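Duplicate of #3305? Posting structure anyway:
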């Protein structure tokens, strides 16, 4: 849920900022149809809740890939970092959710989430730190 909410907010804001909600809707409809097909196939093959949960993560990845590719293509951007981050977070989630002790599972996920976020977004975090340092030096915060 946390991954989905973050991804949805980011992707929607990309399209909202560029006033291209129509493309966002078109891509969302394509993803919906593809997700429905994946759900049917997974249900018919495995008939288990776990496989449906894994399928939903793959569908999220499919949806994000379609939205991200479309946006990057239209604006000639490089977004491989975002896709890598999402794939790694899904992998971390799957691995840590397999730990039987719920407390250790949660703590492991939070630590790995924090570490990966700092590693992937270190340039952004450094820029924010410098910006806040400058604001503080000029008495604006």
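Output from current build:
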């Amino acid at each position: 849920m946390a991954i989905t909410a973050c991804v949805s907010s980011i992707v929607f804001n990309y399209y909202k900022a560029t006033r291209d909600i129509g493309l966002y809707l078109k891509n969302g409809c394509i993803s919906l149809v593809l997700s429905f097909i994946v759900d049917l196939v997974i249900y018919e093959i495995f008939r288990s809740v776990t496989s449906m949960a894994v399928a939903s993560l793959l569908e999220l990845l499919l949806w994000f890939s379609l939205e991200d590719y479309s946006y990057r293509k239209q604006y000639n951007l490089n977004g491989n970092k975002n896709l890598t981050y999402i794939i790694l977070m899904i992998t971390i989630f799957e691995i840590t959710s397999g730990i039987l002790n719920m407390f250790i599972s949660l703590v492991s996920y939070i630590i790995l989430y924090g570490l990966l976020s700092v590693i992937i977004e270190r340039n952004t975090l450094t820029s924010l730190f410098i910006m806040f340092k400058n604001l503080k030096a000029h008495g604006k915060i």
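Confirmed duplicate; merging threads. The mean pLDDT is 85. The chain has two domains: 2-98, 100-141.
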